Each structure stands twice: as structure tokens, then as C-alpha cells.
Amino acid sequence: MRLNIKIQNLFIECTGLIYIILFVYAAGSKILDFQNFQAQLGQSPLLSPFADLVSYIVICIELIIAVLLSIPRLRYFALWAAVALMGMFTTYIVIILHFSYFVPCSCGGILEKLGWKEHLIFNIAFLLLAIVAILMQSFSKRTLVRLSILVLGSVLVITALFLFSEDIMQKENPFIRRFPQATAAKVASIDLRNLSYYVAGTDKNKIYLANRLAPLEVLEIDSNLKNKKKYTIELDRENFNFKAVEIQVCPPYFYVTDGTVPVIYRGLISEWKASVIMVNTFYFSDIVFINPEHWAFRTQKSDTKENIIGIATSYDSLKIKYSPRVLQKQMDGIFDTDGTLQYSATLHKLIYTYYYRNQYSITDENLTVEHRANTIDTTTKAKLKIVKIKQSGDIKLAAPPYMVNRHTTVRGNLLFVNSQLRGKYEEIDVWKYAAVVDVYDLSKRIYLLSFYVYDEEAGRMKNFFAADSALYVISGHYLLKYGYGKRIQSKIKEHKQ
Fold first, then answer.
1. 104, 43 in Cβ contact below 8 A?
2. In degrees, to the nearest 5, what angle opens at C-alpha 240 toward C-alphas 339 and 314?
3. Considering only CA atoms, which of 24, 448, 463 is closest in space to residue 211?
4. What are phi and psi of 240, to 5 degrees?
5. What is the pLDDT of residues 344-380, one digit of tens each?
6. Where are the domains of the chain?
7. Which CATH superfamily is domain 184-494 in?
């Protein structure tokens, strides 16, 4: 009998000692690399909105339990606290593996080298160890019931955090990005040996680049970024004072535009010969082609010079319609409404994303506003310093603008945004050599995830274009191909079926 008691006491003492080592080491690791620990919590699909508070609470609880376990007369109660904490840790991993939208990077400390499934086995083993130690000291039906209630309570606490966190991230996002593993990665690159290229469009297994210094030159590259061909566009009329020539490829057509003339050409990519289809009708600073006879554009009101979105149709004769409701004025209606115009052929929607505030608008092809949604940063109002020159009456920026959303591209139901703002828990060093791309689901109007596009030989991202299977990026004088992971691919395929 005494031997059994000695074995039980030894088991309980060893359990307490193992837990002391575990919690002290875990807490110490977190303290020594506290910033990284907070960043990991910030990337958690369960704890993102609570990362600041949880980071301190977890360390404190681990140290407190370790101290209590070292005091013999308090060890029994400390083991109950250990069961509660390990129950929460175990539930957290189960939700991550089976219910979370993505699996984040594994935590650090003693479990740094373990995968999530190994974490789960590790936690279950320690949870059972503490439960056995408690039952050795007080084995009864009441103890079993209390342990069941304690474990169930731990499960419910973490489950509630998960549900509450998801709601906060989608409705009240405190500017915390999520970087799931294997979202997108560079799979190919090619040196263009020229800094003036931009992506004009794609067609099946071909990417078309245009050249700002040689406006009528088109470079065709295969999707593996291996083979190249050059074409020169022939225009049926060239007697215009061109200032801002742009090329867009929308298979089977391509378009040559210059909103300062204004003029629009159209031709077949099989011939690279273009004819004028519109001239001297309306000026524009941005334009997208819904179909060969239907275009959406941004221009300025003749009286106030404020930006306004319009559509033009040329089925029988050219008809133009303007919608004053698409763009929302905050300050001057010029700089504060500046942004990018995109079209989703899959959704048959136009998307306008503002440069200087966290908002984008979704309209139908007739410019009826269907939704206004927000990007994940917190800049609700454009931060601009605008002055009016008395002599000329011109309106100008008196200070560099606070850019929020720079480049955008659309594929299927996904909006890709190159944000200029660093989110919470993001390492400032990464931003020195990478650009971030945020991805939004236009159908659900929610933020999905983010990934980094790293500089190529110190060249920053200048332009990008989303295709079905990859994102093509101009970085310095390189063209990069970022292949999509399963999460993005599934979202694009979902709306193509």
C-alpha cells in the first residue's frame, strides 16, 4: 500500500515538475522573442483581434501555474489550472486543423520544430498526464464530473473566441492581415532589360507587355516566361498629338487609347493592325472595355473638373451615359476620388478602388451601384493637403498624398490590391524588400488573405495583372510569375463553373 502511495506521489511530483519545465520554457521563449510571438498570434485565425491582450495573458498564466506547481500544498489546484490551459491549447489546434479557413505558421518555443498534428498529440498527452495526476489524488464521480465540465468549458471558450474573431475580422477588421502558407509563390522570372514595360493583358498561355517608351511595341511572352516575340502595331491614322498612349489586350481584340486626344483604336491580336473606333467625343483618364461595343471610363465634369464615371455604347451609334453616384466626394472631388477602374467579365461588374481611402465600389454594367465595401486598413477619409492657386485657379496637392491602395487587378470574383500600408504585427524589415497584395472576394465583399511579392534585384513592384492560374508582376526590369496556391485557385474556379 505504501509502495502504491509512493508511486502515486512520485508520479504527481514528476508531472508537476514536467509541467513547470514546460511552462517556464514556453513563457521564457515567448518573452525573449515577444514581438515575433505577438506577430504569430496576429496571424492566427482565432486570435488575431485579441493578439495584444492574449500575448500577455498566456505568458502570465503559464508563469503563475508554474509557481503554484512548485508549492506542494497548491500543486493539486495548479494541476486543475494546467488542465484548463492545456484544454484550451488542444481545442485551438483542433479548430486550426479542421475548421479554420487556413493553417498559420506553427508556434515557437519548445514546439517550434513540430507540425500542427504533432502539436495536437503533444498537447493531448500532457492533458491526459495532468488529468491522471488529479485522479490519483482524488478519484471520485464528482471529480470526473468536474474535470469534464472544466475541459468542456475550455473547449467552449476557444470556440467562442474563434466565432467572435471571424466576425471581427470581416466586419471590424483592426487592420490585421492574414498570410496563409502556400498562397502564392514565384515560379518563374525573366529579365526584360527594360524598365518601361507594363502588362497589357493575357490570352491563354501568352502574356502581352506594352512599352511606355515605345508605345506601339508589344512583347509577347509564353506563360513559362521562356519564349518572346515582338510586334509593332500599325495604326490606320497617326495624325494625333499623342501624350498618354495605353494598350489593353482583351482577346481576341486589343485597344490603343489616349484619353488626352481623345482617341480609341481597336484591332485583332492576330493581325496587330488597329483602326479608329472613337475620336474627339469624350476625354478620359481611365478606361476599361466591357465588350467591343461597350466601355466604361473615368473623366472630369466640364464645370467643376470633378471626376465622374461614364459608359459608352456604340451598337448603333455612340451613346454616352454618366453616373454621379459611383464616386463619392470627400474633399475636392478630384484628388480624393482618384483610383483604379477594373472590370470582371465573370461577374459582369465594374469595380472602382480609391487610391487614398479604404473603399471600393461595385456596379453593374450600367453603372448602378450595387455595393460599397472596404479594404482592411482603417483610412476611411483621404488624407490630402489640397491648395487652389489663385492666379491660375488650378487645384494642386501641397504635400505628398497618403496612398492607401495603389495597383489593382481583377480575376473572376477576386480583387487583388497592392496596398501601401503596413498592417498590425507585420515586420517593418519585410516591407523594405517586398510589396503586399491583399485579396478580396467580390461576391461576398470580404477580405480573404494576403501574400508578399518580393523585390527582384531591388526592383519594386510597378504593375501586375491577374490571370486564371498566376499573377504576373513587373518588378524593376523583370517580369515575375507568381503561381496561385489552392486557396486562390479554388476561388477562381468556383466562379468559372
1. yes
2. 65
3. 463
4. -125, 155
5. 999 999 999 999 999 999 999 999 999 999 999 888 9
6. 2-171, 184-494
7. YVTN repeat-like/Quinoprotein amine dehydrogenase (2.130.10.10)
